């Protein structure tokens, strides 16, 4: 019996030593990789929405280009849920070694003011780069007879509460972006939330609601076919695909600017050399004519900002939308 007990103790010691040796070997492998050597293995970009959407489209274009630039496979992992918050939480709780990144959309800065998040949307991130940005197209059902934004505004002022607008859901970026315009123009227009952009557009085209702030990719086909009338775009410059459609700023609201943007962030504390290497690869990718053309097909413009500029954008938009959400009493219901 004593011999058996001694044998068991010896075996346990062996297993422990083997385990510690394996851990040490693993730690050594990661410890010996310097930021200058990055990357030495595949990189994951988490997208907080389902495959096939706008965020997924942008992520896959960028992943392909980064794979070419960095010499390691960059792949997409879709983690939809909670308006993109699920994917953000997973990415931001990953090791800060640059191998797990998150594709943040403009809705990230809205969610920061509407959800109780398990992370700090500013302090717990490393901003890396803005990828692309574009406008909303302010559109109306043709049966309304509105040909310009001032015409819609004039009617809404004379008939408060008579018009309605569709959004992709309460608390969505389309909801908040529209409310921002209504606040600036001092209009009373009824909000009709839908479960996604597709049904919101369907009912706007059908005339159940009269107007919508829609992304270029989802709205332009309906404008081109005559099913919707484009009244304005929300960026400071006109959209190349709709050169005759003025901006909201040109339509009587100087300084008006609402962007639909996407960018890459990571967990807090990614070493600066790694951040700079990814940012540089993105900037080179965004200067590529093929990438520019792909973005343009979705109504987007490449926007190769620095990490510092992206950090400022996130902070400013969280503050901006937070103020609006309080003033307009916007909720998720």
Describe the secondary structure blueprint for this structure.
Blueprint: H1 2-31, E1 43-47, H2 54-70, E2 74-78, H3 85-92, E3 100-105, H4 107-114, E4 125-134, E5 136-140, H5 149-158, E6 164-167, H6 173-185, E7 190-193, H7 197-206, E8 211-215, H8 216-224, E9 229-233, E10 260-267, H9 272-286, H10 289-296, E11 301-302, H11 307-327
Parallel strand pairs: 1-2, 1-3, 6-7, 6-8
Antiparallel strand pairs: 3-10, 4-10, 4-11, 5-8, 5-9
Helix pairs in contact: 2-9, 4-11
Description:
It contains 11 helices and 11 strands. A 6-stranded mixed sheet has the order 2-1-3-10-4-11, sandwiched between helices. Strands 7-6-8-5-9 form a 5-stranded mixed sheet, with helices on both faces. Helix 2 (54-70) links the parallel strand 1 and strand 2. The protein folds into 2 domains: 42-134 and 260-327, D-Maltodextrin-Binding Protein, domain 2; 136-233, Periplasmic binding protein-like II (D-Maltodextrin-Binding Protein, domain 2, 3-Layer(aba) Sandwich), CATH 3.40.190. Helix content is 45%, strand content 18%. The longest helix is centred in the N-terminal third of the chain and has 30 residues, at 2-31. Helix 2 (54-70) crosses helix 9 and helix 4 crosses helix 11. Mean pLDDT is 90; it is low at 1-8 and 10-30. The radius of gyration is 24 Å and the shape is globular. By secondary structure, it is of the alpha/beta class. The chain has helices spanning 2-31, 54-70, 85-92, 107-114, 149-158, 173-185, 197-206, 216-224, 272-286, 289-296, 307-327; strands at residues 43-47, 74-78, 100-105, 125-134, 136-140, 164-167, 190-193, 211-215, 229-233, 260-267, 301-302. It comes from Jezberella montanilacus. Belongs to the UPF0065 (bug) family. This is Tripartite-type tricarboxylate transporter receptor subunit TctC. Residues 1-31 form the signal peptide. InterPro entries: BUG, Bug_dom1.
């Amino acid at each position: 019996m004593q011999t058996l007990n001694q044998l068991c103790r010896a075996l346990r010691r062996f297993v422990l030593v083997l385990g510690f040796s394996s851990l040490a070997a693993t730690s050594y492998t990661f410890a010996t990789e310097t930021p200058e050597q990055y990357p030495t293995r595949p990189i994951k970009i988490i997208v907080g929405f389902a495959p096939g959407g706008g965020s997924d489209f942008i992520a896959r274009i960028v992943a392909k280009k980064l794979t070419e630039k960095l010499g390691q496979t960059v792949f997409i992992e879709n983690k939809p849920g909670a308006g993109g918050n699920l994917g953000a939480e997973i990415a931001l709780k990953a090791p800060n070694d640059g191998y797990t990144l998150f594709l943040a959309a403009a809705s990230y800065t809205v969610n920061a003011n509407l959800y109780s998040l398990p992370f700090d949307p500013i302090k717990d991130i490393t901003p890396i780069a803005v990828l692309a940005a574009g406008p909303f197209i302010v559109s109306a059902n043709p049966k309304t007879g509105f040909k310009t934004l001032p015409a819609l505004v004039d009617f809404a002022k004379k008939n408060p509460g008579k018009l309605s607008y569709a959004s992709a859901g309460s608390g969505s970026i389309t909801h908040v972006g529209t409310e921002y315009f209504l606040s600036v123009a001092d209009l009373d227009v009824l909000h009709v939330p839908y479960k996604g952009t597709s049904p919101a557009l369907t009912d706007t085209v059908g005339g159940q609601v009269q107007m919508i702030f829609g992304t270029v990719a989802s709205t332009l086909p309906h404008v081109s076919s005559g099913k919707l009338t484009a009244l304005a775009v929300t960026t400071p410059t006109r959209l190349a695909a709709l050169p005759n459609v003025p901006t909201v700023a040109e339509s009587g609201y100087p300084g008006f600017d609402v962007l639909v943007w996407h960018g890459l962030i990571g967990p807090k504390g990614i070493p600066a050399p790694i951040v700079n290497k990814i940012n540089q690869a993105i900037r080179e990718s965004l200067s590529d004519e093929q990438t520019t053309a792909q973005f343009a097909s979705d109504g987007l413009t490449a926007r190769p900002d620095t990490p510092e500029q992206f950090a400022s954008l996130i902070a400013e938009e969280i503050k901006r939308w937070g103020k609006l959400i309080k003033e307009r009493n916007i909720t998720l219901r």
